[in-house]
Specification:
The chain has 524 residues and is mostly helical. The protein has helices spanning 6-18, 22-34, 41-47, 54-66, 74-86, 90-99, 105-117, 121-133, 140-153, 156-169, 175-187, 191-199, 206-218, 222-234, 241-254, 257-270, 276-289, 292-301, 307-319, 323-335, 342-354, 358-372, 378-390, 394-403, 410-423, 426-439, 445-456, 460-472, 504-523, and strands spanning 481-486, 489-494. The chain contains 29 helices and two strands.
Length: 524
């Protein structure tokens, strides 16, 4: 083109931006200025969608001011609010609002979404009330964002009010609104309402099915999630990265690994293997099934590893007893300059716990807040306490529990009680058991441990007294349970159950296997 005006430049910049070539679009913007063409308001509205950091956002805003743009313009103002909202700069969003002469629905939607993204949930609800006072009618995006706010707050009552408003104005069967409503009902433990709303939709789309699949997975209904996924494929609804991620999360707990392998094959077919969220879900799935090599291979193939990737593989290694590998990855994470978070330290402390690395664990625990600014939480204290218990250092474990800034949970005291029972410390068992009874009176563990230790020491009267106390409190005995997955069925065996699925035949077969193993051991 012999002559390129601002419209020509805007068109090609917009084309690169819409195709995902952000760097090239920014280069063209600089090149346009070098030719003497002055940017327009539309040029800057494109740039606001390309910024990659808070600092970059402020630079674009400054450039707009220097170029003499009318920042009171509603289009530019909305672009700035969305830009700052992406980085959680809520105060800057309000500063832009104050310069605008007129606000439309998009302005309020952008501001409410910015508050929600920054975690300022009550502020988001307050902006909605202000919006209603200005007599502007909310649209579908407003309602879906508000229901997301209520989902995060687990506030079913406020969510119902928003849902009733959607029903009143006719938004209830909009796919985006219904997806947000299903997510709200799911997180507030109203599965039946989520299912009812989903079944009322005649037309399915990806967003609606994703929410319902996620809902099933969250409520431990892996088979229902998989069944719905198959139905979406039959209806030619292309799955998204979020869909397969939800499925992998449900497979890793409730369905056989063969199903996970099939989904993994589908991921390659769909071209999702390079997506970080999908890759992290695969690492998590294989880690929970114990296929550590598969998890490591997928982790190593991730080109851009975020902290979630590192945390997922480290937690998988720790759970599977690969202590040295988890510790090496932690050192590698620190060396690449990525700051660890609370999940990272939980994975490392779990590895130290499983590997009985008391000195290394205490060193990492002491550096959490001092060097990395991560305040230890209950989970970290529980791993440290269990680490000391396994090493037989019961006094140190009790001192940590008594000095921790949180109220010790019954689980922490149970770890100490189990260790005390292992080492036969009667006095410590009585102290710890009393603490557990005070905090969790319905649990049977302290009564059973006391009864057993009294019997071992010949204190029969004390044993009878503990048994009667357990009966009087109505404590229910915890029943052990084992899961065995065979093809598409998961069989559950409870310790006090004589018959199950296959009846006595299964137990006869198990007894035969035990007898064969004992015979082989005797032969050796």
């Amino acid at each position: 083109m012999p002559v390129r005006d601002v419209v020509s430049w805007n068109t090609v910049i917009s084309g690169y931006a819409s195709c995902g070539f952000s760097s090239r679009a920014l280069e063209l913007f600089v090149e346009m200025q070098g030719t003497g063409v002055r940017p327009s308001e539309f040029t800057f509205s494109i740039l606001t969608s390309l910024v990659s950091s808070a600092c970059h956002a402020k630079q674009v805003h400054c450039r707009m001011t220097r170029s003499g743009m009318d920042l009171s313009n509603v289009v530019l103002g909305n672009s700035l609010i969305t830009m700052y909202g992406k980085f959680g700069l809520v105060d800057y969003c309000f500063a832009v609002i104050l310069t605008m002469k007129q606000l439309d629905v998009i302005s309020w939607n952008s501001l409410i979404w910015a508050c929600y993204k920054a975690g300022r949930l009550e502020l988001a609800l307050e902006q909605f009330r202000t919006m209603r006072a200005s007599e502007l009618l909310p649209d579908e995006f407003t309602c879906s964002t508000l229901m997301s706010v209520c989902s995060y707050l687990r506030d079913l009552e406020k969510g119902k009010e928003v849902f009733a408003f959607c029903f009143k104005v006719g938004f209830v069967y909009n796919s985006i609104v219904s997806s947000a409503a299903i997510d709200l009902f799911s997180k507030c433990n109203r599965l039946e309402d989520a299912v009812r709303l989903f079944k009322e939709h005649e037309q399915w789309d990806s967003a609606l099915c994703n929410s319902m699949i996620s809902c099933y997975a969250r409520h431990d209904l892996g088979k229902d999630a998989l069944r719905l996924f198959v139905l979406t494929l039959r209806k030619n609804i292309r799955p998204t990265e979020y869909t397969v991620s939800c499925l992998l999360n449900s497979v890793s707990i409730f369905l056989p690994v063969e199903v996970g392998n099939q989904i993994h094959a589908l991921i390659h077919k769909l071209g999702f293997e390079s997506d970080a969220v999908v890759a992290n879900s695969l690492v998590d799935m294989y880690g929970k099934f114990g296929f550590v090599d598969n998890a490591l291979n997928i982790f190593n193939e991730i080109k851009t590893k975020d902290l979630v990737s590192w945390n997922t593989i480290m937690m998988g290694l720790s759970y599977n007893g690969k202590v040295s590998a988890a510790m090496e990855l932690f050192k590698e994470l620190i060396s690449v300059g990525m700051p660890p978070d609370r999940i990272t330290f939980a994975a490392v402390l779990l590895a130290c716990n499983n590997g009985s690395l008391v000195d290394e664990g205490m060193e990492i625990f002491s550096l959490m807040e001092m060097e990395f600014g991560v305040k230890p939480e209950e989970e970290h204290y529980s791993y440290v306490v269990e680490m000391f218990c396994r090493a037989g250092k019961l006094e140190e474990a009790i001192i940590i529990v008594e000095n921790m800034p949180y109220r010790a949970t019954p689980d922490i005291w149970r770890s100490i009680l189990s260790a005390c029972a292992m080492y036969g410390d009667l006095q410590a068992i009585e102290i710890v058991a009393t603490k557990i009874m005070e905090r969790s009176p319905q649990t049977t563990l302290p009564y059973l441990v006391l009864s057993q230790i009294y019997q071992m020491n010949g204190r029969w009267e004390s044993k009878v007294r503990v048994r009667k106390a357990m009966e009087n409190r109505g404590s229910k005995e915890l029943i052990g349970c084992s899961w065995v997955g065979i093809k598409n069925h998961v069989y559950t065996f409870e310790s006090n159950q004589l018959q199950h699925y296959g009846g006595k035949d299964i137990y006869l077969l198990l007894n035969l296997l035990v007898w064969e193993m004992e015979t082989e051991n005797n032969d050796v």
